[in-house]
């Protein structure tokens, strides 16, 4: 029923908001009820260009969206340096919060945001879309199956794309006052989340950044990597970069099985996604080929992964609004673990590639 739709306001009109506003329109339990930018002209132009419903209110400030009584929840695609201020205000105004990743500049800021959300009874979720794809659920089922995958031994992930000169000089992700975490916060966040997924969200015990990261003249990371170690012998590595060809890979190896994905952040096709999985693979008798080969697992969905994210977020908000439920703690906890590892990688780079112990 239309009255049950969760009313979502957009706090900012960054480019990613185009994709999210489309996702909201595709979800069956949410609608865009307000758009706010730093000027009314910008909000109006965004609404006209992106098919925002005519009933949505247009605001010439972020504050106006947070004050709008017709808004249940907000999506914030603001630069990371602005998250703390606006997230705290959103929570204070009792607006449920879908926050762009990385959630914060560090875990201290992250905890301030979580504390504000918890004390005001609002839901917090980050905008990591790929984890809501049904493929990811199928991957998690395989990775946690002791009979098919066994015990995790190693994970390798990467997310890279070759940014053009304009991007490298002008995008917010290369500006220290806007998104100081650079590639680590943007792409590394996805890589670390994939590693944690493979590890069933058990944090590593130690993180060591890879040597020779690439930083721009302002000190923002353009290319970096790290190794993560667990005391039980598990190891993971990742590489993220604005300077290498588009690649989005996961390789997870267990004592019994192996998983490969080549498009984990954004599938090659919007509504179909695949991964390769194998269990106890082996060579043939003459070792001229494989006797037991990997299998391709394909999942299909009626909605793209970003719309599935919106549907889940709106469902949680609806549980709170209509059933007096408590905010779900799963998604903030997963986000926090991701932030902890991001912090450790950054600290290792800053300390000359020292090993950084992880303390939850």
UniProtKB/TrEMBL annotation:
Residues 6-125 form the Gfo/Idh/MocA-like oxidoreductase N-terminal domain. Residues 143-259 form the GFO/IDH/MocA-like oxidoreductase domain. SUPFAM superfamilies: Glyceraldehyde-3-phosphate dehydrogenase-like, C-terminal domain, NAD(P)-binding Rossmann-fold domains. Pfam families: GFO_IDH_MocA (PF01408), GFO_IDH_MocA_C3 (PF22725). InterPro entries: Gfo/Idh/MocA-like_OxRdtase_N, GFO_IDH_MocA-like_dom, NAD(P)-bd_dom_sf. PANTHER family: OXIDOREDUCTASE FAMILY, NAD-BINDING ROSSMANN FOLD PROTEIN, PTHR46368. Belongs to the Gfo/Idh/MocA family. This is Gfo/Idh/MocA-like oxidoreductase N-terminal domain-containing protein.
């Amino acid at each position: 029923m239309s009255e049950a739709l969760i009313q979502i306001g957009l706090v900012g009109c960054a480019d990613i908001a185009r994709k999210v506003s489309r996702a909201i329109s595709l979800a069956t339990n949410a609608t865009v009820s307000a758009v706010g930018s730093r000027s009314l002209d910008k909000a109006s132009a965004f609404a006209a260009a992106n098919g925002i419903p005519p009933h949505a209110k247009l605001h010439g400030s972020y504050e106006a969206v947070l004050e709008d009584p017709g808004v249940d929840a907000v999506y914030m695609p603001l630069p990371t340096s602005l998250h703390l201020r606006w997230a705290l205000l959103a929570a204070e105004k009792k607006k449920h919060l879908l926050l762009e990743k990385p959630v914060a500049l560090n875990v201290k800021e992250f905890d301030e945001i979580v504390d504000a959300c918890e004390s005001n009874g609002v839901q917090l979720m980050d905008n990591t879309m790929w984890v809501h794809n049904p493929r990811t659920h199928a991957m998690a089922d395989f990775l946690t199956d002791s009979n098919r995958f066994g015990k995790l031994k190693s994970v390798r992930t990467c997310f890279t794309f070759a940014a053009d000169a304009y991007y490298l000089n002008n995008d917010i992700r290369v500006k220290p006052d806007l998104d100081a975490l650079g590639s680590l916060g943007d792409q590394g966040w996805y890589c670390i989340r994939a590693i944690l997924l493979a590890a069933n969200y058990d944090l590593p015990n130690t993180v060591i950044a890879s040597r020779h990261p690439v930083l721009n003249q302002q000190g923002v990371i353009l290319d970096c990597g790290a190794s993560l170690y667990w005391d039980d012998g598990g190891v993971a590595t990742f590489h993220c970069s604005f300077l290498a060809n588009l690649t989005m890979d996961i390789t997870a190896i267990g004592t019994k099985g192996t998983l490969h994905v080549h498009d984990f952040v954004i599938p090659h096709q919007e509504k179909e996604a695949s991964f390769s999985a194998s269990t106890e693979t082996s060579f043939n008798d003459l070792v001229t080929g494989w006797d037991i080969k990997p299998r391709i697992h394909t999942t299909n969905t009626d909605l793209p992964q970003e719309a599935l994210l919106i549907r889940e977020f709106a469902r949680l908000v609806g549980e709170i609004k209509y059933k007096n439920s408590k905010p779900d703690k799963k998604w903030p906890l997963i986000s926090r673990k991701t932030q902890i590892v991001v912090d450790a990688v950054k600290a290792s780079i800053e300390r000359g590639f020292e090993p950084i112990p992880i303390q939850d």
